[in-house]
Amino acid sequence: MGGIFGATAHDNVVPWVMQGLADLEDWDCDSAGLAVLADHQIQRRRATGRVSFLETLLGDEPIASNTALGHVRRATHGAPSRHNAHPLASSRVAVAHSGVIAHHAELRLELVGGQFRSDTDREGVVWLRARVRAA
Fold it and tell me: pTM score, two decimals?
């Protein structure tokens, strides 16, 4: 199934979010990811496989923040891979979504100017938000 866990506080919330992802993970999750706001930029770490794989990645490439968004995923659109793992992001917006966006093909066509980096149905939300923000 998958799930989303986010937190904001005065201290580093990455350990809290990672524990939340571990609690949400079940047998069919195929990727896990984390987005944080650090130094006014969105930074992400994403891994194919279990939450433990993301934990290993964070050991090699640590990040800390008082604002974090995490996601564990079971692929519905786009194969299980690091570039399809959530959160998906532009330079200003990070999105984690569980479910299906039925009109994703039409949305992709409409947002052809967006720089799609994944094969998921959900990335259109990132670029739609970026377009609305620019208007």
Answer: 0.77
